[in-house]
Amino acid sequence: MADTTQKQKPKRGGDGEETGTGEGGQKLAKKGAELKEEMDALVDEIDEVLEENAEEFVKNYVQRGGE
Amino acid sequence: MSIPKVMGTEIEYGITVRNDRDFDPIASCVLLVNAYREEHASRILWDYDQENPLADARGFQVDGEKYTPNQQENIARNKTLVNGARFYVDHAHPEYSCPEVTNVRDLVVHEKAGERVVELSRQEATTLLPPGAQLLIYKNNSDRKGNSYGSHENYLVDRRTSFKQIAEHMMSFLVTRQVYCGAGKVGSENRAQPCDYQLTQRADFFETEVALDTMVKRPIINTRDEPHADREKYRRLHVIVGDSNMSEYTIYLRNGATALVLSMIEDGAIKKDLSLRDPVRAIKEISHDPTCRREVAMENGKKLTAVQIQREFLEMALQYASSRQVDDMTKDVLAKWQYVLDRLERDPMELSREIDWVVKKALIESFMERKGLDWESPQVQMLDLQYHDTRADKGLYAMLERQGRVERIVTDAEIAAAVTEPPHDTRAYFRGECLKRYPAHVFGVNWDSISFGIGDEPIKRVLMGEPLKGSKAHVEELLAASPTAADLVRNLRA
User: Fold this and answer.
1) Is B90 a catalytic site residue?
2) CA B432 to CA B10: how far, in whole Å?
3) Residue A6: its pLDDT value, please?
4) Considering chain B, what is the average pLDDT of its residues?
5) How many angstroms separate the CA atoms of B131 and B149, rounded?
6) Helices (DSSP H) in chain A: which residue ranges?
């Protein structure tokens, strides 16, 4: 499910250009592989910056009400 | 004829200190705002005399104690900046109120400049903490434990438009705009129905339809009648039912669509009755449904989705715009509004570059899938929080922006300039320029006044009841002809 979300359409306006032909199918598969690679890169980067000890961190994040 | 939609936002940030057992939120806030170095700002008072947060738009005055700090506390908690903004301590949160602007592009620039001011202050303040301790700031609205802090929008409205009319139409508009305004949240709180993920940070906290409160029993329509301008002519609609957005696109559409609907109300252009049967219930039902397909009950017995209700508003807005001269930015807002509703109807996840709650959801789901995590996982909750982190190297929204994974509206250069430059077309220009030119002689500031202390003379308060006066076009000559504050005061009197 997540695969269909983040990077499906890096550029707007080009939707629907590559459909139909066998060549298009190959392109699509290639694009799919690229997307997966890109997703993996993103997850790796999140991994790098995500706070350690998430459990303790979110537990300790307590605010007073405001406004 | 509708009046220009002068607007601004007030953002309260979440604050914490890592590795400090004695963390005191208020002391940390004071440290933060005082860490922001603008030379003049250390001595200027916020002028509480002009404020009246207890006036109710329905026409009465509410009992209660007006907050007026002593002078020392006032100076410690309030900074008025040369870009016309106010950066201050509100209860236990740092708050940034951007200067008055006349259009949504400037609004994005100045709300984003606020994030920079807060982050610069955070960096500075952290150096003053004990070794190992680190001050952290989040532009979000909830700690996910039932405590919420606000993100408020302000819009100038014609006083002749009755508050009843505003409340009637804005109720269903504000409840349904969540589908493109939400900042997204993992889980629910404040005794709301459990859920994995919801559209907004704030929906769980709204408990009543119309009221003056902002801290307890929060209302969808806030009745605070404090125009910060000539109250014979203006209202300020204080919208408290929004989220703190990270996405420029979301901020732009949020304020753009809202301002347009307010103009339409002023012009009597909302012809349809789109009243909801139970707005307090609907706000949560809509927020808790990331498919955006759930129908809510209308007063007339029908059931519609939030997207369908927004479409009704959009249709009326398109018709409104076609019957008069509208500027290019309004046309752009309409185009984006339509673009977003089309995609929300088809598949909301197509908006993973534009709309905050979708951007965040897509990010979290990618991570969850690769790591085999679920919505209850602390790491997933951490992602939710860290999306809003103000640090360039840690904030997840900042990371997406750097990688070109989200749509932008403005440029980094424009944002950087707005840290020290007020908007040119509102009274914020006069406020900011006075602070730049006469820092030693500005005694106190409020949105609609600025006072000067010159030598032993009595304090001179200059009233600014017209938000559009005091613009560069109005005061450039006056300022050029006034090398000193004494000259300015003399020239103003002449």
Assistant:
1) yes
2) 18
3) 46
4) 95
5) 29
6) 22-49, 54-60
